[in-house]
Design brief:
The chain has about 240 residues and is mainly alpha-helical. It contains eight helices and no strands. The termini are far apart.
């Protein structure tokens, strides 16, 4: 596969990952508890609702698919940064940072919906306080995962700044997003929204890089005859 097509597929994988992650979080939120002030009756109602439990059961596989596509996009972004920087070692932090964000996101959502899955069993008696604790633990892990997002934003922005690939305003906005991600415990949902918007911009950048990348030259198939070279007849030389 040539470079242009690989980057294009990575860019579209990133676009699909955002859609899947948003859908997955919305489905799992139906049974999750991220507000410790929620009443006991409301918590038990969420856990024992069959429709909500089924939605959360669909949400986890969708989340896994979104995370896989996000990592695919991260590999494409790293290739673009490698080309911009001429092989800057900092570009190799892109995929681990995306993996940190993705891994903690899956863990946080799993903790949040664990009580709802356990409620499928008749032998399980839900304790609202335990559900609150698991929900808050999931929220803390999700905010910790934004550190990976902050590293992703900061490394990408620094390399793009050195290569003069971004306008000044975009550079400073990106640095502000990185700071929000690194301070996710205080910025809350604002950091998640800012990171999602930045990710959309990064996807557009990868797709544009794919469009500017020339296609690889055609390679003749193995066993194919090489084109004949027409040689000029020798000319007689005079003494």
């Amino acid at each position: 596969m040539d470079e242009s097509r690989a980057l294009q597929r990575a860019g579209w994988a990133g676009a699909a990952s955002i859609v899947l992650l948003v859908v997955a979080v919305a489905l799992c939120y139906l049974v999750g508890v991220d507000d410790p002030g929620m009443s006991d009756a409301a918590i038990l109602e969420r856990l024992n609702d069959d429709a909500r439990q089924a939605a959360a059961g669909i949400g986890l596989p969708v989340l896994a698919a979104g995370v896989a596509l996000l990592l695919w996009f991260a590999t494409g972004l790293r290739r673009v940064l490698d080309r911009l920087s001429g092989g800057d070692p900092r570009a190799h932090a892109i995929v681990p940072a995306a993996a940190l964000f993705s891994g903690l996101m899956i863990t946080s959502v799993s903790l949040d919906v664990a009580s709802a899955f356990a409620a499928w069993s008749d032998e399980f008696t839900a304790d609202p306080d335990t559900v609150r604790a698991l929900g808050m633990a999931g929220q803390v892990l999700a905010l910790t995962g934004l550190i990976g997002g902050g590293v992703l934003v900061a490394v990408t922005t620094r390399i793009a700044q050195q290569a003069r690939a971004l306008p000044t305003w975009a550079v400073w906005v990106s640095y502000a997003v990185a700071v929000l991600c690194l301070s996710g415990f205080w910025s809350g949902g604002m950091a998640s929204v800012a990171f999602a918007l930045w990710l959309i911009g990064a996807i557009i950048g990868v797709l544009r890089a794919a469009r500017r990348t020339p296609p690889a030259p055609a390679v003749p198939k193995q066993g194919a005859q090489a084109p004949e070279v027409v040689r000029a007849p020798p000319t007689a030389t005079s003494d």
